[in-house]
Amino acid sequence: MTDKVTREARIARDFSLVEAGLDSGSLSNVRYLLNYSLPPADIADLIESSTPPERQVIWKLLKEKYRGEVLSELAEDVAAEFLERMAPQELADATAELDTDDIADILQQLPATLTAQVLHSMGAQDRLRVERVLGYSDDIAGGLMNTDTVTVRPHITVKTALRYFRQLPKLPQIFDTLLVVNTEDKLLGTVPVNELLTSDPATQIRSLMNEEPLSIAVDTDSKKVASLFEKRDLVSAPVVDSDGYLLGRITVDDIVDLYRDEAENHIMERAGMDAEQDTFAPVLKTQRRRAVWLSINLVAAFMAAAVIGLFEATIEQFVALAVLQPIVASMGGIAGNQSLTIMIRAQVLGQINRGNIGWLFSREVRAGLLNGLLFSVLVGLVAYLWFEHLLLSVVIAMALVVNLFIASIAGVLTPMFLQKMKIDPALAGGVLVTTLTDVGGFFTFLGLATLILIG
Amino acid sequence: MTDKVTREARIARDFSLVEAGLDSGSLSNVRYLLNYSLPPADIADLIESSTPPERQVIWKLLKEKYRGEVLSELAEDVAAEFLERMAPQELADATAELDTDDIADILQQLPATLTAQVLHSMGAQDRLRVERVLGYSDDIAGGLMNTDTVTVRPHITVKTALRYFRQLPKLPQIFDTLLVVNTEDKLLGTVPVNELLTSDPATQIRSLMNEEPLSIAVDTDSKKVASLFEKRDLVSAPVVDSDGYLLGRITVDDIVDLYRDEAENHIMERAGMDAEQDTFAPVLKTQRRRAVWLSINLVAAFMAAAVIGLFEATIEQFVALAVLQPIVASMGGIAGNQSLTIMIRAQVLGQINRGNIGWLFSREVRAGLLNGLLFSVLVGLVAYLWFEHLLLSVVIAMALVVNLFIASIAGVLTPMFLQKMKIDPALAGGVLVTTLTDVGGFFTFLGLATLILIG
Known about the structure:
metal-binding (chains A, B), magnesium (chains A, B), 3-stranded mixed beta sheet, CBS-domain, Tetracycline Repressor, domain 2, MgtE_transporter (chains A, B), CBS_dom_sf (chains A, B), mainly alpha
């Protein structure tokens, strides 16, 4: 037996060939590889890692029938470039074969009038199933749901069920659980396909059925859905309304996407950005988006400057204070963000409750004070060797302890406050804590200096 | 039909009852709920969101036979507390029923001598399958792999295959793909279980088989494995050695865990921490861990202070410089971290290559310069209104443009440099970029002030 190149190795090779072809301009080869070798997810990757001019070339070379799947794999920001130039009928055709939730995701990016036109261009049956999902926001179970459920009644036998499957044109790609419903589509139970395969064909479905099936309420928060899939090792789960009637199901591939987006989001949010932003966005769009975050920071910076401004007279007499002041502020910022980060993670994981917040707060304050003492000795010593002024070293050492104390309190309380105000602590927490530790640090250091060195 | 509480609602209720029981000390109820109602993942959640004394109570109440599964769900840092007190035989018994990769993950946390003792306490067959996986680090496919594959030969019929399944004591919980191998266990192809269900029982497996099956080389990086599951919507995938012989398979539940850990890691790394760290770690452990990160930052802060120290004479004449200097530095820090973040995300997604890095670099520099110009006007104006000194406003405006220019260059080059040095840019990038923009900001601002205001 001769060794073949594996499938993924071939795809990786063709991916590089397309990149090279785009650089050199030998487009007939690129066209072939795009339409006959690369899967949609790889074409989406290719587009996302291309510059804007190359993207237009790829899009033009790509057959219309593949465009829907590629669109559903693209980050919103990138998809928008192509969506705005597609006619409603073109979009309806391109997305016809997609999963319901993927079509809904794309349509939700469009202006409402355009969505209506695309829906109008669909076949009646498609329109119905898409409209059903479109009603749900994509941050609840309903928005993640597909309508490709396979259901049977409880009284039939395994043999009848298997015969029924063979008569279906196609089973869904992910099919691990058979859903058992009554004549009104109320969910009665579930049977793992596994058990179907190992059971006597004469067995009744009812006797294999899990009568306390895991089902997801349609309005469940999507983060909770993801956590359920993770904890229960699910491959798919039925979605029901408040009366227990079956509406659809969620499959693990969408949960993997959700977690991947969350991971991306956690990278991006520390600079005030989100996962849907395009790496290769044009200059002006980039500049405008970043200006917002810079403006917020500018307000914070001016507040810190204003605090320093209160002590101009003190600095005039002791210029060393201007040299040392960033140390107190920046150590506080780091310590505050350490406390903040452990709190944000705990909030995301739902670990905080009334019974443990007191313990956590006290632990943070004590760890902050201990590090405050440790670094105050170190920084005090260095300051003394540098400026040979004993009282100055005492001032910076005291300010450091106080600011690391402020930092631990700010780090714990800020995310709790932001969560109460329904503002994402991961996004706004950093700026807020840093502002508090900057203001606190400058005020403590320069204030103590005024009292001890001047007064 | 009366409405029952759904399974997840019952678990959530019992979870709260356990929390309340631990607070009030009514432990007999807690013992019952832990051992008869809550699934292992929820017990792990409960432990992770409890304070250290409560954890010991929960652990003692938990039956030994459930401890293995709970251990496998705990973050390493938390699991370590319990592992260090378990005898080798106790650990071997507790983990006997776990998936191979989960046992390996636990054993890899132990000292080598203890691992050998636990292996020695296992049955011969268990030991063999665990040792096979233990050989692989957990950041490659081999470490994610289980040995619970179901294989058939290509010449048998669907009917024979189905009969074979019924004779097995149990099919694996996730069973979406049948693996077809030759007599030497070389992977020949795969058949989706779907197709098995819808095919004529007389069909030969060979004719249903995908002859270019998706298989994963055992040494594939685990991040690449995860990305493959995400792109191909996989539920499971066979793992092969370099000659194509079947070694095991990876299932999507482990990929979901991987992405969840990655999301957690991206939260934690911005404060120099990682996902395995315990939220409720004791004070001294917390203090020591954070001191490392604070020390690194302290070095950076002293470098910035040293730069300011060069210009003491200038500040003595213009104290306003001490007031305004943090603005230039902090705006640079924010802008630098914006560029850094977009680069880190692009690196994680593998979007950067020789063909587009030039475009990206130029886009970053131009966006940085544009925002530099925009904010220099704004900050210059405010500085003028504040200090009524024209040249001072010109100095801060110029410094801001230069520092945002420095920031964009540092933001792009730092992560590329760190990647070359095999240092994680997401961990070290922030400190490095901030140091560069602090040093650059203070030097430019105070340097220009010396030239223009004094010179």
